[in-house]
Write a structure and sequence with these properties.
This protein has 165 residues and is α/β, with parallel strands linked by helices. It has 5 helices and 5 strands. Helix 3 crosses helix 5. The model has no long low-confidence stretch (mean pLDDT 93).
Length: 165
């Protein structure tokens, strides 16, 4: 069994999702949601909130690793810097708990989950719901993206494990 915490970093809303791969190679959703951040709160307070929530999830569920999305591009430099800080805090939370961090490009995540790297958000949500046999499509999209990141990591590590044998 392997448990992965996927994190979809965002300045105002950071998604998280815990996905387990069992001995029968079946995926299961353990928990998912979002960390909502107030625009009015200072950046340092928002980063602290993310660190505390991710640390709490790690301490509660004891994942084997953490997976996050790589920064791909940003139209606004200020937004890109803030996103980088959020990603840094997510990496710090994982490292603080001695967990390895895997990073994946958005195209890689979508390809692993949907089979098409340019899939729309709704397609990702639908496929995540299907792969995890959820009764409803995971909402909001940030949480579904975090689940997709975890699924991508589980697929990737399983494939790499098979190739090593």
């Amino acid at each position: 069994m392997m448990l992965v915490l996927g994190v979809d970093c965002g300045n105002e809303c950071t998604g998280y999702g815990l996905v387990k791969l069992d001995s029968r190679q079946e995926l299961a959703c353990i928990e998912y949601g979002v960390i909502r951040l107030s625009r009015q709160a200072p950046l340092s307070a928002r980063l602290s909130t993310i660190f505390k929530k991710l640390s709490s999830l790690i301490e509660t569920h004891h994942p084997d690793r953490v997976a996050i999305e790589e920064v791909f591009y940003a139209l606004n430099v200020k937004s890109a810097l803030k996103l980088g800080q959020v990603r840094g805090v997510a990496m710090l939370a994982a490292s603080w708990h001695n967990l390895q961090v895997a990073e994946y490009a958005p195209l890689t995540i979508k390809s692993a989950v949907v089979g098409y790297g340019r899939a729309e958000k709704q397609q990702v949500q639908l496929m995540v719901g299907s792969l995890l046999r959820l009764k409803e499509v995971p909402q909001p999209a940030d949480a579904a993206d975090a689940l997709a990141i975890a699924i991508c990591d589980l697929h990737t590590s399983t494939t790499l494990g098979r190739q090593a044998v």
